[in-house]
Design a protein that fits this description.
Layout (H helix, E strand, L loop, with lengths): L11 E4 L2 H10 L3 E6 L7 E6 L2 E7 L12 E6 L2 H10 L3 E2 L16 E2 L12 E5 L5 E6 L5
C-alpha cells in the first residue's frame, strides 16, 4: 500500500456569475488570488485567506439554488463580531432563519441571526451565497 499526504482540500463551486460571487466572498474576508477570462466576465477564480481556499467556475447551465447539495462550515473566533462585520460589508440581514420555505432562495446573499444549537453553544450564523450555497459559521467553545 502506498502512502501519501493530502496537501489541501479546496471547495470548487459552479456559479451563475463569477464576478458576483467574487464580490460576495470578498465581503466574507477572502482575497482574490487569481482569475481567468475576460475583464468583467471571468470564467474561473480562486479566492484565499489564511487556512481557506475557494475556487469558482462559471456554470455551463442554470443554477438552481434549491438543488445545492453541499454545505460549508467555517469556524471563527467571535461569531457576533463576524456577523457585524458582514453586515457592515454590505451582506444583507436575513433576520431569523425559520427553515426552508418557498421564499428561502430569493434571500440568497444574506446572513441570518445567530443561533445557539447544542453542537455550537457559543453561536452559529447561517449565510446564503448568491447561488444558494449555504455557509454555516460557528464559534467553538462555550458561550462567553
Amino acid at each position: 500500500m502506498s502512502t501519501f499526504t493530502i496537501q489541501s482540500f479546496v471547495p470548487f463551486l459552479h456559479v451563475a456569475d463569477v464576478t458576483a460571487s467574487i464580490e460576495f466572498y470578498l465581503r466574507l474576508g477572502f482575497g482574490l488570488d487569481s482569475r481567468f477570462g475576460p475583464e468583467g466576465d471571468p470564467y474561473w477564480a480562486r479566492l484565499k485567506r489564511p487556512g481557506c481556499d475557494l475556487m469558482l467556475a462559471k456554470a455551463s447551465g442554470c443554477i438552481d439554488p434549491r438543488a445545492q447539495g453541499a454545505l460549508f462550515y467555517l469556524h471563527v473566533d467571535d461569531v457576533l463580531a463576524y456577523r457585524v462585520a458582514m453586515l457592515d460589508a454590505g451582506v444583507q440581514d436575513g433576520g431569523t432563519y425559520a427553515g426552508a420555505s418557498s421564499d428561502e432562495f430569493p434571500r440568497s446573499g444574506m446572513i441570518f441571526a445567530p443561533t445557539h444549537p447544542p453542537h455550537m453553544p457559543a453561536g452559529e450564523v447561517r449565510v446564503h451565497d448568491p447561488d444558494g450555497y449555504v455557509l454555516l459559521v460557528g464559534q467553538l467553545g462555550e458561550p462567553g
